[in-house]
Every structure is written in C-alpha cells, then in structure tokens.
Amino acid sequence: MQTPLRLAFVPLLALLCVPSASAAPKTHTVTLGASRRVPYTPPEANPDNKSEEATTLRVRPLLVDTTQKEWTVGEIHDVTDRSFVVRRALRINDSLPGEAPRWTWQPGPWLMVDRITGHITALHLPAFDPAVSEAIWFRDYAAYCGIATTVRNGGLVAVVAELGARKAVVQKVIGPWPQANAPYPVCTAAKWQRTPMRATLQLTGGQAMTFDVVGLSSLVEEGEAEE
After folding, report:
1. How, if at all, do strands 67-78 and 83-93 pair?
2. Within a 10 A sphere around the Cβ of 62, how many other Cβ atoms?
3. 36-39 and 56-64 strand pairing
4. Using one digit for the tens of pLDDT, what is the confidence trace for 61-104?
5. Residue 189: CB partners within 8 Å, gap ≥ 6?
6. Strand, coil or helix: 167
7. HSE toward the beta carbon, residue 146, CA cutoff 13 A
8. How far is Cα 166 from Cα 178, in angstroms, rounded to an integer?
C-alpha cells in the first residue's frame, strides 16, 4: 500500500512535466550588416563607362540571430511593425563554357522578412523582371513596370501588385517587348498617392498613366512566433 507522502509526489511530478502555457515564444533578432561593393554589370553597361559606380553594387548581409541568411541590395520597406520587404542580391557565375568561374552580382527578387520569427519568404511578384522592374512600395502594394510573357497579353506591362493576392491589382500592356535600343530605365520610378489611393507609372520619355487602386490594404499574414 502506498503511503500518503508517496502519493503526493505523483501530481507534483505531473505538474513539473507539463510545459508552461504562458511561456514567452522565442524572439529572433533580424539585422542588416555593413554594406560592401561587389562586381556588377548593369543592363545599361557599355565599354566606355568603367567607373566604380557603374561596375559595382552595394550589398548587405541579412542576419537572423547573427547567422547570415541572404545577401540584399537597396533599402528596406516596412510593411507592418514586424514585417519588411527587401530586395535579394544574387551571386551569378558569369563564365562561358570552358572558362574559369567568373562571379558577378545582380539584383534579384524581393523578400519579405518577419522580425519576430525570423522567417524569410521569397516574393513572386506578377511579371516582375529583375532587369527591368523597379518596385516602389506603399503599404503592402508595389508598383512597377514588368514583362508579361503570355501570348495574348504579353509585352511591357504596368503592374500594381498586393502582397498575399494571387493576381495583380493592375496589369496593363503599355508597349511591346523586347524593344530595340530600349532606354534605361525603361520606366521612371512609380509615384503613389494616398487618398484616393493611386499609382502613376510612366515610360521613359512617354506619357504618365495613373491607376486607381480600389479596396483596402489586405492584412499581411503574420504567423505566431516560432522557436
């Protein structure tokens, strides 16, 4: 027969084995490191322009808890108080067949980063082309010129995309692509208006086009903090 003292240890042991429901989830530290210059061949490169600004790119490491996860280029855009977007920098092997490896860099797609969980998501913006598109952000919307490759509606397109949406809010063909002797940049930087919400895009040397963005900003899905 078990003694009362021995029986008292059973519920106490059970309580010690149950994890605390109120334990705070682990918070990660997300930072961008110091920038450095790397070799880069921009789309508008020519043999006559060999300046450092024209042949290099400033990249910064994206760190989660002091561990490097990605290389980035350009400034971040805060979408919410815990999530931001930043453009990824890609290191590309630029050597021809038979040549020794020749590494260069180029701006890549956009990433969304959660400051709490440290989770990094690659964004697949509609018709986004790293060589042509320069996304300008407002809230959780991006406005830019892109390249559509569909047969019926292909070409150079004006795009307004929303994070979390399957289709672009705006996608309108504004010219053929490819173009002989296309200017760089192909489009000037998009301009945003808050009320009413509008985005204005313009081909370089062309006429400005303004698009109304109908509806409220979607709620960007932000998961619970993870270990």
Report:
1. antiparallel
2. 22
3. antiparallel
4. 999 999 999 999 999 999 999 999 999 999 999 899 999 998 89
5. 134, 136
6. coil
7. 25
8. 26
Looking at this protein, which amino acid is placed at residue 6?
R
Cβ-in-10-Å burial (0-12, 13-18, 19+) of 122 comes to exposed
Residue 60 corresponds to which tokens in the numbers above?
């910064």
> What is the token pair recorded at 137?
């952000």
Distances, alpha carbon 192 to alpha carbons 24, 30, 85, 127, 201, in Å: 39, 28, 17, 20, 9
Q: Whole-model pTM?
A: 0.80
Tokens of 209: 């086009």
- Cβ atoms of 134 and 189 closer than 8 Å: yes
Q: Tens digits of per-residue pLDDT, 149-190? A: 886 778 999 999 999 888 999 999 999 988 888 888 899 999
Give the tokens for residue 52: 């450092």
Cβ count near 207 (within 10 Å): 7
Tokens representing residue 5 in the block: 């003292």
Q: Which of 31, 50, 27 is nearest to 40 (CA)?
A: 50
Query: CB–CB of 141/107 below 8 Å?
Result: no
